[in-house]
UniProtKB/TrEMBL annotation:
This is DinB family protein. It comes from Flagellimonas ochracea. InterPro entries: DinB-like, DinB/YfiT-like. Residues 14-164 form the DinB-like domain.
Amino acid sequence: MDKRSIIDSLIQRHEEFGQYLASLSKEDFEINRKEKWSAGQDLDHILKSIKPLSEILSNKEFIAAKFGKGNGTSSDYENLVRRYKGKLTEGGTAFGNFIPEKINWSKKADLLQLLHQRIEKITESLRGYTEEELDELLLPHPLLGALTVREMLYFTNYHVVHHQSNIIRNLKSVDNTM
């Protein structure tokens, strides 16, 4: 995926996630059963996941100095998703700062606005990158290790879809138990 496609996908997928969450009732937004996160918690997790990216992408020099440079190649989207799913199958889960808080309905609108702002900041920073820089600069991922910026963006694109699917599946399981 080239830079323009990545930016378009980031915007589209996060807008779809936000619109889906905006459509949920208070009960569906807050409910969690069987140790599964509520939709609000999934939103909080996504926000916590993209916050570091939104804060660091604008500083390429810092990224290079702190995390280094790779060999100039990135995995493709499908391979990155396969690696991530493999880590989840091995028992990988969110930890530390990425574990969501309980999120009440009253916070939903503000958090959805924050989601929009963070994606806007990420995509604005990306406009200053060359295709080569996306494949050269490295960032740390808590489960996958060192990723190129392009790979981190692939992850970010997949991650939001993964969590939206989790919410949909969890709400269906709640409906089936009633």
